[in-house]
Design a protein that fits this description.
The chain is of the alpha+beta class. Helices cover 51% and strands 20% of the residues. It is built from six helices and five strands. It has helices spanning 52-55, 66-74, 84-96, 100-116, 121-142, 146-163; strands at 7-10, 14-26, 29-37, 44-48, 58-59. The protein has a five-stranded antiparallel beta sheet with strand order 4-3-2-1-5.
Length: 164
């Protein structure tokens, strides 16, 4: 059972802290919700407590797992194959997995692809979301500010640009 103060990741939204548990009445039925406070955009998300397992809510990675994310970001990008629409849906599916390594790979691939030839507006929105999800989780895993994490990511990816 999750508790107030736990740091968790909500796939496709990013990481946050459980700020509280609220009971709300929806369509005449009382339900209990976790209130998730997100570090970016000062957003709050309410998640039904009885649906946590179904939506893939998980703990934030440990600081020792940050190296795995770094390795993904430093790896050679995967070749973009197929139409932008096909790539978009494949990347979206990877991000929905909730695995930060998949999100890091999507961000790496799209950033480096954009360097070679501009990505579509749909892929640009997906890239922005991937970066937001990465930053939100790494803020907690690394105990750093969003700005520090963004700079760290940019440093790694700019070095990758020149390697590959």
């Amino acid at each position: 059972m999750l508790q107030v103060g736990d740091k968790v990741v909500y796939p496709m939204h990013g990481a946050g802290v459980i700020a509280g548990i609220e009971n709300c009445e929806v369509l005449g039925e009382g339900k209990s919700y976790y209130v998730l406070q997100m570090p970016l955009g000062n957003m709050k998300v309410m998640i039904p407590t009885d649906n946590v397992d179904n939506i893939g809510l998980r703990d934030v990675i440990s600081s020792s797992q940050v190296d795995e994310v770094r390795n993904v970001l430093e790896d050679k990008p995967e070749r973009a194959l197929g139409s932008w629409n096909k790539r978009f849906h494949e990347n979206l599916d990877r991000m929905k997995s909730g695995d930060i390594r998949d999100v890091a790979a999507v961000a790496r691939n799209l950033i480096l692809q954009d360097q070679r030839r501009k990505i579509s507006s749909g892929e640009r929105r997906l890239l922005d979301l991937a970066k937001q999800i990465l930053v939100s989780e790494l803020v907690y895993a690394c105990h750093k500010t969003p700005e520090e994490v963004e700079n760290w990511l940019e440093d790694i990816l700019s070095q990758n640009r020149y390697k590959h």
